[in-house]
Amino acid sequence: MTDDLPAHRILPQRLATDSESVERDLFKLVLTIIELVRQLMEKQALRRVDEGDLTDEQVEELGLGLMHLENAMEELKGKYDLTTADLNIDLGPLGTLLSE
């Protein structure tokens, strides 16, 4: 950066964005968070099933609920032509956010 130019002259006043890309990126971020929570819920449910904490009826309801949530996620990803890989944020040396 040069000392003779003020910072407001170097940086643009507004970011060049179009509403469609902003909407898609926001939707992608929201779906990423939902997918992360869905995966955490699924792992917690499997742990509880393995430990025998749930009745057969609770296991059935939990399975149906997770199945419906996964189907809804697939529909929402399809709306913007996204895959689970598109939602998987790379955290650098920590790996990726979502499990494969």
UniProtKB/TrEMBL annotation:
One GO BP annotation of this record: gas vesicle organization
GO cellular component terms? gas vesicle
Sorted alphabetically, the keyword list is:
Coiled coil, Gas vesicle
Chief location category = other
Q: Where in the cell is it found?
A: Gas vesicle
Coiled coil among keywords: yes
Q: InterPro entries this protein is in?
A: GvpK
Q: Does the keyword Isomerase apply?
A: no
Look up the coiled coil feature and give its residue ranges: 59-86
Q: Which residues cross the membrane?
A: none
Q: Which family does it belong to?
A: Belongs to the gas vesicle GvpK family.
Task: Output this protein's name.
Answer: Gas vesicle protein K
Organism of provenance: Nocardioides iriomotensis
Query: What lineage does the source organism belong to?
Result: Bacteria, Bacillati, Actinomycetota, Actinomycetes, Propionibacteriales
